[in-house]
Write a structure and sequence with these properties.
Protein kinase domain-containing protein; 2 domains; 5-stranded antiparallel beta sheet; Protein_kinase_ATP_BS; transferase; Phosphorylase Kinase, domain 1
């Protein structure tokens, strides 16, 4: 496999580089039968040990879903560790919506909505249907790949944690990408499936706005979106100005769902299965249940302390009577509560 990988990528030539994952570089390659593949070569400096690498292999090799990247093969030999994935023609969502002008793709609303729904479906599989359940921990635009039809597939499981059925939350070393980190995970190291839900909410806002979560469009503005829900025309101000002919009601619904996902208190966020139902059914969301989003700002001590304080006082200030205040995973929201009758 090592020989085939070097041959397929012309000895990992820089011209074949198509991206960089959490632990190495990704190259485009062509197998001897003409099959295009994506080859992830882990760097010598990678912090990912052999055990973590084999965990990734075992996990990916067992799961199959239309919205998850498929593992074709692997190699662990001496210091060389390589994963061979299916190749996705349109690279990553980050390249499509956040890339340079030459690589940027103007996606219509139908395609953007499909990307949100497909990514959500992939997360439902990881959270509820994969055995054992899987939390990704690093959902972001560069880890959502797009095929020739711009259908999304979630990739890069290098940071994934496995959830046994009897475990609801883990305390763990924080790993992920700033801008997508849920506050309880970034500040307290508490890892639940709701961490992925939060990241997915940020991802949705990026898809709608074509603006990176690391830029000024989010931050204080994200906090203000809850108030903006009172003025639907103003809420549409975050929509990508290059997006034309979109249904206002549906876009507002998607933004509202993203805000449900990014609430500061983890167990007030919906599950990914509930998110899929909200995305795929025409329903009127119960906006009265929304509380303020939570935002982690690592470079601002005042922001971080405020974030920690808001978590500690959330039981008094942010939690409504429809939600369980336990820090563990809770599906205390019912769909009938989110969707007023």
């Amino acid at each position: 496999m090592r020989y085939l990988s070097k041959s397929a990528t012309r000895n990992f030539h820089p011209e074949n580089k198509i991206g960089g994952g959490g632990f190495g570089v990704v190259y485009k390659g062509i197998l001897r039968d003409g099959t295009p593949v994506a080859i992830k070569s882990l760097s010598a400096e990678s912090k990912q040990g052999t055990v973590e690498f084999l965990t990734e292999i075992n996990m990916i090799s067992r799961i199959r879903h239309p919205n998850l990247v498929r593992l074709i093969g692997c190699c662990v030999e001496d210091g060389n560790r390589i994963l061979v994935y299916e190749y996705l023609n349109n690279n990553s969502l980050a390249t499509a919506i956040l890339g340079s002008r030459g690589k940027h793709v103007d996606l219509n609303w139908g395609t953007r909505a499909g990307i949100c729904k497909g990514t959500a479906a992939g997360l439902v599989f990881l959270h509820d249907e994969a055995e054992p359940h899987i939390v990704h921990r690093d959902i972001k635009a560069s880890n959502v790949l797009l095929d020739e039809n711009f259908d999304p597939k979630i990739g890069d499981f290098g940071l994934a944690k496995l959830f046994p059925d009897n475990v609801t939350h883990l305390s763990t070393r924080v790993a992920g990408t700033v801008g997508y980190l849920a506050p309880e995970y970034a500040l307290l190291g508490q890892l639940t499936k709701k961490v992925d839900v939060y990241s997915f909410g940020v991802l949705m806002l990026e898809v709608i706005s074509c603006t990176s979560s690391s830029k000024a469009a989010f931050g204080e503005d994200l906090m203000g979106l809850v108030e903006w829900l009172k003025d639907e025309e103003r809420l549409l101000d975050i929509v990508d100005p290059n997006l034309k002919d979109y249904p206002d009601d549906e876009v507002i619904r998607f933004i509202t769902i993203a805000l449900f996902c990014t609430q500061a208190v983890s167990n007030q966020r919906p599950s990914m299965r509930q998110v899929v139902e909200m995305l795929t059914k025409t329903v009127k969301l119960n906006v009265s249940l929304l509380t303020k989003p939570g935002i982690y700002r690592p470079h601002s001590s005042s922001s971080s302390s405020n974030g920690a304080r808001s978590l500690k006082t959330a039981g008094k200030q942010l939690v409504n009577h429809f939600a369980n205040t336990s820090p563990q995973i809770s599906n205390s929201y019912s769909l009938s509560q989110m969707f007023p009758r």
